[in-house]
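1st attempt posting a full record on here, be nice pls
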Amino acid sequence: MNQTAKLALSDGTIYTGTRFGAEGEYFGEVVFNTSLTGYQEILTDPSYNGQIVTMTYPLIGNYGISKDDVESSRLALRGFVVKELCRNPSNFRSIQSLDDYLRENNVIGIEGIDTRSLVRRIRTEGAMTGVLSTVDLEDASLIKKAQQSPDIVGQDLVKDVMPSEVSQWDQGLHEIVLDPVTPRVPAEEGGKPYHVVAIDYGMKWNIPRHLTQMGCRVTIVPGTATAEEVLALNPDGIFLSNGPGDPRPLEYAIGTIQELLGKKPIFGICLGHQLLGLALGAEIFKLKFGHRGANQPVLNKETGRVEITSQNHGFALDSESLPENAEVTHINLNDETVEGIRHSKYQAFGVQYHPEASAGPHDSHYLFGEFLKLMAN
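the predicted structure (as tokens):
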């Protein structure tokens, strides 16, 4: 039997649809993703902690759920919004439907609303807090809850999704997505793998898969790890992962990165890129509605080439606040925000987007090769 669900925004807008997945009530920042595929990778991306995600593509769930297409051990997002849910997926890799998957993972889904209207409102007014509910269907009550729910700005959402212990990673890329041009540790290195310590702020698993596929030995440490703890592992390079929310409250991470600068090569992605910028003395600002999707155009200023990239973030570095030795290497062609930086003194660089591309285009795989070069030098 169909069950009504409602999504209320803090500006007083109400959307009524049909529930799928779990029952209950959750609040979160309502955002949208423009990807045509990759909904399972989106669902399992820890960077969506604290958010209710709307898919702009109208039909979601048509290829079901695969055991291989996960980016973390659990679902961290607060809710999932689609125009039309496919309840009978067709895919030889599928093991269950999206409806069952969300129900098992206690995530509420809502279908049947006008997602175009919702996305236009977010683009016009900006990302805002919302409440998704199957238990309270009173409009006034839901609007009040949305208006009283905390904003994502200023929250530390990393500690909810980062690991609690140090671990070793040994899984490479799945054969279906194996890229023949993936950079490799040079054979003349005698087969000795570079040791990468990945600081996990909510890392997508395709990142350590890439590092492992390249021939690196990967150790994963919690986002609260100190510089002393990281250096005690004797890494050849340090990776700063993606993660959720506002980077500014993460003083423990910023302090650690400041102590690591100049000691080992550093590569940051997404939140890791923002934390690197903060550690260098730059400032962060919140984007109106963020960049989320697998079709974001980025200009590589060094080569003049345009890369189509996969992105998921709501904050960006202020280019005017970057210190003298930090240069902007990549810019977003939609709004000219900073997409990549490099420090000329320290062996450190970062990009705002996701070169591991899960899901998404493979234009930026070369960045892992750049990290290899830094470790080789």
